[in-house]
Amino acid sequence: SIGSEAFQSCTxxxxxxxxxxxxxxxxxxxxxCTxxxxxxxxxxVTSIGSYAFENCTSLASVTLGSGIKSIGSEAFQSCTxxxxxxxxxxxxxxxxxxxxNCTSLASVTLGSGIxxxGNYAFNGCAALTSIEFASGINWNGISIDSNxxxxxxxxxxxxxxxxxxxxxxxxxxxxxxxxxxKNKLDIKIxxxxxxxxTNTYGFASISAIS
Length: 210
Hints:
- The protein is mostly beta strands.
- The protein contains 1 helix and 14 strands; from the N terminus they run ββββββββββββαββ.
- The radius of gyration is 17 Å and the shape is elongated.
């Protein structure tokens, strides 16, 4: 494991290789490493602690290994250079404020194992215009807090919901309709299904995945 605060505030650290035998990254492990530009987390890692990469303001590229199951609260908060993130299929939970104030984050892809997205997870992500949910998500079992994007946003966000089963899509729409800024969400669903859906949920729009 990489212990709590192991490299905290190492402001000259520009790169690091995490060995394949590391299983966890502790709280505040790389917090405030303001010169770190890239991180590749190996498949052996199963958990990323709270504040692990908080305020890594030069961190532009994050590759998450397939073994990760949980991303702690505020884990990537204020990583202002990060432009996109792909959450692997084994990740079940994204903590509160996990990507808050990642002001350059434009695109998020969520894997099929996600069951919990904490409040304010993407709050203050002013550049965020695309979030994609994988097919295979258990929408009946997922918990999405109402303020994952915060109380208000100025931009619209394209939300792609993959899947071809009508009931699954309806369940997904019902869950997403609990988001406080749902009127800023442009929902994209399977082209064979969208004509069967009426936008009674209060979203900005519902249309076909192009």
